[in-house]
Amino acid sequence: MKKYYPLLCSILLYTFFLVYLFLLLSVLLFERINFNGEQYLVRSINIVPFHTIGTYLSEIIHKSSRIAFTNIFWNVLMFAPLGLYIPVIKGGKKTITYLYWIFLFSLTAEILQWIFGLGASDIDDIILNCLGGFLGLMAFKILLIIFKKENKVRIFTAIIAALVGFPIVYISIATYLYNQ
Known about the structure:
Layout lengths: L4 H25 L3 E3 L2 E3 L2 E4 L4 H13 L2 H25 L4 H21 L3 E4 H25 L2 H30 L1
Parallel strand pairs: 3-4
Antiparallel strand pairs: 1-2
Helix pairs in contact: 1-3, 1-6, 2-3, 3-4, 3-5, 3-6, 4-5
């Protein structure tokens, strides 16, 4: 059984990485704005760095806006797993290389949102997504310090992916089926 343990961890890791990518792309590319129970496609763009973030932070401070906080929080949180998955799966690269790929992934998603009218394209989303990816990369570095070997970080990440991934997949499917 022990010889199959790394294989099982790899299967779990890759499975939940693919599920994570599917869910991330679903959120990024198929987000809809809801007005009075009807869905509308939105096409807007913001290319001024920190404009939206500044507006949201002002709303959080002055109005205790939950919507603004949620937007900032989820943009960071959505990309943290990507920052952890990439070095675990690829191994051996520098942090700046991984951050570059996270940036390209986020930029591509924002461009596709604008081209297909699938939401608001915002440079601040890219900034927040890269921050989330960077936090994931730092989590990898911390785990590497704790476990000392990439293989142990890989096994730990596979276990955490399964423990966190199963409930997320279940909730996502249940929510999707409920909304149909």
